[in-house]
Sequence to fold (1172 residues):
Amino acid sequence: MSVIWTMIAKRLGLGVLTLFVISVIIFGATELLPGDLAQNILGQSATPETVAAFRKELGLDLPAYTRYFNWLFGALQGDFGTSLANKRPIADLIATRLGNTLFLALYAAAISVPLSLLLGILAALYRNSIFDRTVNAMALSSISFPEFFVAYILIFVLAQSGLFPSMSRMDATVGFGEALYRTFLPALTLTLVVTAHMMRMTRAAIINLLASPYIEMARLKGMKPMRVILKHALPNALAPIITVVALNLAYLVTGVVVVEVVFVYPGLGQLMVDSVSKRDFPVVQAVALIFAAAYVLLNLTADVLSTLSNPRLIHRK
Amino acid sequence: MKDTNPAKPVLLTLRDIHIEGRSEETWSPIIKGVDLTLHKGEVLGLIGESGAGKSTLGLAAMGFTRDGCRISGGTIDFDGIDLRAATEAQRRGLRGKRIAYVAQSAAASFNPAHKLIDQYSEAPVQHGVMSRAEAERDAVELYRRMRLPNPEEIGFRYPHQVSGGQLQRAMTAMAMACRPDLIIFDEPTTALDVTTQIEVLAAIRDIVAQFDTAAIYITHDLAVVAQMADRIKVLLRGDEVEEADTRTMLAAPKEDYTKTLWAVRSYARPVQPPVAKGTTPVVSVRNVTAGYGAADILKDISFDIHKRRTVAVVGESGSGKSTAARVITGLLPPRRGAILFDGAPLPADYRQRSRDQLRQAQMIYQMADTALNPKLRLRELIGRPAQMYLGLNGKALTDRIRDLLHLIELEPDKFIDRLPSELSGGQKQRIGIARALAAEPKFIICDEVTSALDQLVAEGILKLLDRLQSEFDLAYMFITHDLATVRSIADEVVVMQNGKVVEKGPKLEMFEPPHDPYTELLLSSVPEMDPDWLTKLLRERAAKAGKG
Amino acid sequence: MTILINLFWIAVAIAVALGAGWLFRAATIALTRGATARMLRTAPLTAGFGMLVILIYVVVALFAPLIAPYAEREVVGAQFLPWDATHLLGTDNLGRDMLTRLIYGARNTVGIAFATTALAFTMGSILGLLAATVGGWLDQILSRIVDILMAIPSLIFSLLLLTIFGTSVTTLILVIATIDSTRVFRLARSVALNIVVMDYIEAARLRGEGLWRLITREILPNALAPLVAEFGLRFCFVFLAISALSFLGVGIQPPTADWGSMVRENAALITFGDVTPLLPAGAIALLTVAVNFVVDWMLHRASGLKE
Fold:
């Protein structure tokens, strides 16, 4: 068992290191900005005095590495500095939006993960049947659609008739049931986008194994097709399935950007897009760091879980 | 075909079976109308070369075809049940319960995600033959009968925690779980080393006899089938050649094809005079220790290879014989020791060797499929070394390629612009030889060059190599695990075990006593055509063990 | 009831698409001979349809000025005019002809996506093949860099980079190509790693072949099939990524006609029950579906031939 723990510890260490390097990239990227940041933000018309004062306010008079570590330690304590656009603490801007984004992502995940596993297993079981072909063609199409196309079609079909709201406004007073209702369309959009991918990969991971001698053995022992798939193929297909699920969950967290914009949903993605157009660097950096952290964490979890799903690693000789 | 054993009732009858396989968009025949009758408790050996359709026919006896195959004609009758007319659910009810299957590679046929005992009890529990607890008790009993070590606890291990020979016995036990009437053994010992094979063969033979189970034993190895089967059926490209009881078949085969199969092992290279004392060997391996990571795979090995001589390096898997080849070619620089070529040391790493040093030592690989770039035509495959080392171009190069194709007995006009995928296995191996010859080397390493080939084809390759050796004064290092090959082609033998040379010397001495104990074990484990060989051997070994 | 009617029209559309695919396949089979025709015969109807669509897009993109009724940036009437005889698809939010913008969009959006994919592919596959062939420290360094870059979600990373470098077409192509080349690198490297362990590569190394010949003659021809399929997939990803960025307002900038921005500019119409803004989105979807259908067939062929 100790081998497993050292492996997991190594992965965790690598994850922390990756996050650290990413934070350097995210912070350092603004240093690449041609010209002076303060001048850039204030515009050419600003007097040298205002620029100098602004530089001092941003802390630009300090060396880059000092600013980086101040920023990093601040971020680790939840303090991301202040927004350039409206001078409010970034932490305040982010707090409720992060909750909203996670809510939407979890909502979509709760529908799409079970749905795609079920469809993937059924498609593998009835491979090359009409059911399989239909599900596959639909999946392939929905992978090919831009998210905003799916979103607008749903608005066109479901919001036109007044079934669901086309804008998902949220505030503190909205109850859980109401929140589920208001965010149904964005959640459905995300579900359609990620289900296709997960379902295809689940099907492929299982079908890949169906040519293995141990699957033939199970069939020659007279086992029923469903048992062959669930008991013999699925446990060995877990690693690729876990990986693709994690990848899509990570995608859910970051892929919300477009969906949030379409449905005017007050989440992190919308904040990021707004800040990009306002060139509000501190906010962009903060949101990018949060998204990257979520992404790295999910992939790390998948890595550890798929390691744990391998009997060769758990039960060593 | 008449009923050959009227004393026992018939269990299985296949009549005029036709099976087709799909390639691209068309169906082509694999089995072309074969009949088969099997009595209760009888063992039938199915023998043939690759592509003969042995496995396909064996599976058809269970009413089963692989994906992309279909039974297109004939009847299958198992104990009064028409397997072709039966529903899939009925056939499923028989499989694992009354007809069981033992696959070639137990390591691949056990599900890596479940313990052995879970896989053992699956069939009896799912078929409703016994409860889980009964199945587990029964498993221990069968593991004991299969002479597995620690029968009480071996079932609670995962497949990767158990050795290949033990897994194969565990799989036979699993097939026995429901006490079936019939077991299909599909090359159960082909993937095993000879010394391991013996134990598995003995265990299978005993348990089949104890439970009076009928069996179809599929193999390409005549000597193995001679030990196991009551009757033998020979297949060739989906057709039956002949069938007879084992002793008749071995003593007096009727058909020409069967006779050629029996005759294969007779080829032997004439004995060469000993090398004169003081001659400089072409290649000399001096006290080489080498390995990957921390472990030493080769431990202080030395041997010489002379001009016009073939040195066979023999050993089972893991003995280090292929690693020795990698050290000589410079792919794996040794930790200690050196390789001398014509008396002068070679740089340890191939990247430091001169073009001429690279040219002098060539290699022929076991799997011609992976040794030839599938996207290059023969012209380039063979021509490249000649172009690179000898600077040939244009007409001179084409002429040289044609000469080389002549040498390996392939028609130049027909073959020069083919891709490897348009060749048979034996032809591919010949291209591997031509590529080595194109460099005009002094020394060629042959790494298991015949082990992936059928016997007749392998025989052709051995004869060709032999002829080329005398024509071009070549020195050969012949890596093999097959002692029959050694007997036919070697001048000298190097026996390796666990990275050490346990014995070396001229071939004639090697095959005569006294032996090193490991050489003795290796030699005695090679199956012989005599149907009583296994029985005698086991008796001898038991007697020796009793004495010791 | 409306749902049933919708379903009916969807079924009609699918039937027409498959019929067109069948006709196109029959036509190409008739026009080609030998191995190509034999290969085309194995194409499913979806792939035939896909090839037809791709061909139409290419023609439209190449001959946009000849086909389009107006100039790309010309204001031809009032804003948001409905569909009529002079403006088949009406006008957009600035009063430009919608059909014209759609046609030019094929040239701009597809062209930029294609250029980006080609660049990403060249960088990624050269470095990937090199890393796998040379191995050692070069492989280690390149792989670690790619690991880090891939650990940042691509949309977020491109938003960050575009904020900094601005949103010209050149920066857009460079940023997306760089981010996407990491994915190509991964694939090229893993494909090449499977080839590098083959005996024929060992034979070539032992023969003393140089790196250039090793990659171009021994490895590349064997890696080509998966790489070509990957090109199709990567194109879809790049195309969707650029469209998403344009839709968010940080991709291709006005007044260039581009499908992603067209959706954004005219989105307001959707809430009034007008389908016009869905057309550019549909144009994007149709092309990616078409490419995916063709790639799916090629991947299926590649895996089928191995057995």
